[in-house]
Amino acid sequence: xxxxxxxxxxxxxxxxxxxxxxxxxxxxxxxxxxxxxxxxxxxxxxxxxxxxxxxxxxxxxxxxxxxxxxxxxxxxxxxxxxxxxxxxxxxxxxxxxxxxxxxxxxxxxxxxxxxxxxxxxxxxxxxxxxxxxxxxxxxxxxxxxxxxxxxxxxxxxxxxxxxxxxxxxxxxxxxxxxxxxxxxxxxxxxxxxxxxxxxxxxxxxxxxxxxxxxxxxxxxxxxxxxxxxxxxxxxxxxxxxxxxxxxxxxxxxxxxxxxxxxxxxxxxxxxxxxxxxxxxxxxxxxxxxxxxxxxxxxxxxxxxxxxxxxxxxxxxxxxxxxxxxxxxxxxxxxxxxxxxxxxxxxxxxxxxxxxxxxxxxxxxxxxxxxxxxxxxxxxxxxxxxxxxxxxxxxxxxxxxxxxxxxxxxxxxxxxxxxxxxx
Length: 422
Ligand code: IMP
Description:
- It is globular and about 65 Å long.
- It is about 35% helix and about 20% strand.
- It has a ten-stranded mixed β-sheet, sandwiched between helices.
- β3 (about 40-45) and β4 (about 50) form a beta hairpin.
- By secondary structure, it is of the alpha/beta class.
- α2 (about 75-90) packs across α7, α3 (about 110-120) packs across α4 and α3 runs parallel beside α6.
- Inosinic acid binds near residues 39, 129, 238, 239 and 273.
- Inosinic acid binds next to α4.
């Protein structure tokens, strides 16, 4: 399989968890390289549902090494809770998990600031997951963040945290929010630090050793292309590089060691949080929500839904260098008589074949649709490409062609076996 970067080609929630799980079978090492516990990767194995936030999904398969890379922001309390939860479900988490020494930490003041800034923004809010992700990356960029390596060094951690709590309490007071107790945060974090210490490692060296031993690495992207801090619909984005380049900076594996990029996209479009979504449609949202689908894995929020947006996915192919596509949730469209696909945007008389950078312009974009006949047959039991209805195949081929990459996987349900390889 070689080294594979897997990314979301839309606004996150593309069903990456399942595709990662499927591809992990051929990988030796699975690495998270950006984001934090704002992510929620859902994997179904048999009747069991696993929701992972920070731990790479590779943990669900035996003999896979899982790495939380330097580009991730780690909430230590959240991570300890996640590890305990996985162990309770019988998942082995010990010498198969490594956390980068240089991964930055998320603190309660980050979460509080995240909430306070959203309140202050009012109707212009981003709709964040309130996990403190933006403020934690903010500290990292400002060079005032604390890292895993600090957490496991008690004297240094105490002095750095004392300073940070003092500074952030002033900010919280200015917002009218309750200041934090150093003592409480310190004791909770030190306890989590003791629990996490055995996992902390120099993951750059570890990954390069793995490559020397010709191991195959899967880089597990979180969120999606249009939530990228540089390439997304700024400011309605997350605070990390969710695009393929983030896999290199977030792990220490250089670009020329990457062999392929797999882009995951839904057969339609969804988004959680605020920001433009040109193909948003009440018709498709009502249908999917009535089926019990499209509720966020991290916050439970109903996702906004729309038709497939090929302008956006074409852009995603460009910025990520997507070689292969995995299209998920194909079965979500099974009942429709007609399926729309957006092939261009229009603002007034101007036609756009690309995603405008100005978020206000993007919000004014009207989709130009082409229509495809629906197949109106359940696809969730199909296991081979040739057994899919011909209209499903035509639709999938068309969206892959419009996106500009090779269709490699079609997923017709959440289970591992509901996966069609081309
Ligand atoms: P934050 O990452 O919590 O700061 O949220 C910023 C934006 O990214 C919001 O619109 C969130 O809904 C969105 N977001 C963050 N993580 C995910 C995810 O894992 N899936 C989908 N959307 C996400």
